Amino acid sequence: MIWPWLLVLGAALLSRRPEQTYGPWARRAVLLALAALTLSYLHWRVTASLNLATPLSAGLSWLLLAAEAWLLLSGMLPLLLSWRRFDDGRAAADAAEARWRDSDWRPQVDVLVPTCGEPLAVLGRCLLGCSTLHYPHKTVWVLDDSDRPEVRALAEHHGCHYLSRRERRHAKAGNLNAGLAASGGELVAVFDADFVPQSHFLERTIGLLADPTVGLVQTPQVFFNADPLMRNLTMERWMLPDEDNFYRWIEPVRSAWGAVVCAGTAFVARRQALDQVGGFVEAALSEDFVTGIALLGRGWQVRYLGEPLSAGLAAETLLDFVRQRQRWAAGTLQSLRLPQGPLRQGGLGLGQRLALLEGCLHWLNTLPRLLVLLMPLSYGLLGVVPISISVHGLVQRLLPLWLALLISVGWLNRRSRHALLNELPSWVLTVPLATTVLASLVGRFGGFRITPKQQPRSRGGSSRLLVTPLAGLLALQLINLGRLVGVLTPADAGAALSADPALQLALVWAGLTVLGLVVALRACWDCADPEPVPWLALPLAVQLHDGTGQSWCAAVEAISERGVDLLLGGDPPREQLQLQVKVDSAPIPALQAWVVDCSGAGSKGSRLSLRWSDGQTLALQQLQRWLFCRPGCWQQRQAMAEPVALAALLRRLLTPPRPRLAGHRSLVTQACDHA
What we know:
This protein has 675 residues and is α/β, with parallel strands linked by helices. It has helices at 3-14, 24-48, 55-81, 90-102, 120-132, 149-157, 171-182, 201-205, 228-232, 244-256, 271-276, 287-297, 318-334, 350-364, 366-374, 377-380, 391-412, 430-441, 464-487, 493-499, 501-523, 617-628, 642-653; strands spanning 109-115, 138-144, 161-163, 187-190, 196-197, 214-218, 267-270, 301-304, 310-311, 535-537, 541-545, 551-559, 563-568, 578-583, 591-600, 606-612, 667-669.
């Protein structure tokens, strides 16, 4: 039977060019090929691969089949939803903005910034961005649930209105509703306290709301720091953020079905639409998701503009990252019980409901993933083979499906994620999310927990809550792998392997599981970061000048609102001199800086680490505006070739963690547009 391999070959040939360069026929052909391979594989699993020899083997065999079928079919759902034409909404936004500029509609916009205990440096960055918005008809409201005098003073400094509630009920949703009650603008924009909008955010989004049927416009979330999985593995160059796939592929696909998800920040909504659904849904942990569904059910359009127009802070430790995902999972699953959820909300079409329910399936998938993670143990520890496999089944059913998925998933997702690389470190989420899903299924959803931001860490470390279950699973898998290897004797190892496809599969499966657990454990180590401010990689050339007229040419290695790391072509200053940094290739303000470290950087020159001097508040604010608020500063990267990225990951497993200091900073690459 050659047709499965012909389908794999066809997918491989198509994947040599980006999916966007073809017409929809190419994507649909690959979708049909994946569907055919999946159904063929599942048919073979049901009819020829079950081990029914004993009650135990039969039970494990059916359990594994159920887990595989769930994962494969639920994984096909978002792919099949992409059958329709979809785009990121930029062309529609361009046309809407042009029409809006030609009109005389200039609505009043209330910019709501909910906050509850974030560091002043984080909130100040957000308010600086909000006050920098070019659109003049706006009022910025700081909604402070911590009731701090210093936040009131910060709001006044940036010309913002300040509001604090006496009764802090219903977490973020209640805070936003209090802001709605106090304000009166026709439109409402919302930014979390750690998000910074670009200066043209409102001008790019208001035009879409000129259509009276549009109730909300959502833009993507991007981050100016790497998430903990990328940072702890030092894979910032090779991996993409976990959210990239959602905002660059899933949201555009859902947009084609009229099922865009409100993401809680970086959106603009019509007050009339929010009033019609009673404001933000206070009974929901994920008030954004449920409020967006309520708007759809009332007939409002929720539009998506896939252009990065703001950026925020990702979780900074892996434990905070996991807890954030647990809250998202609990909130999404809680929505299934709410009147405004995807199951009970009226007014939704079948396509809309399926697209929204796919987000719930994403979290439910954690349970079958855990089963697949545990199932290799049955080979070595229990002596039970949960899948009866032959050479024919391996070559004609299993391998073609695996290869087709590895080739096609990243291509179909428009290089917004890797097929395998993203799966390995995410195994750290499997056990915590499984407990959350089980608790949610019995009605225990927990409370609203704010993710800490910009917290210094003087020492590296990891959380026992994350490490303990992973270490236990790894120990079991190593024992299991040792027993499987022990079956082979040096004299007949090759013959035994070639004669037993089940043993081949067991060894590969156990080996990949061990690798995934090792990667997950390595990702648990949060490196020391005494100054957790976002550092950016920017292609800039600079000149340094001291008080004597001497100057140096240098290239920026990393830059932040705290300082800059430079690579110098010649001998740098060896004393703590006050220097002026003049940037020739981009309009960064001139700033005074102190030399805080001078070290060798190899044959190309020396590394110089500088700290911005105090007493130059206006210049530092200009720098912040240039770093975070200028149009086009956030770029969307493409996922590297999977083998290259996997090779980089394997090298990282052999590298000890290092503190995030000069020369080893965690960097997010930023576009340098001279406009």
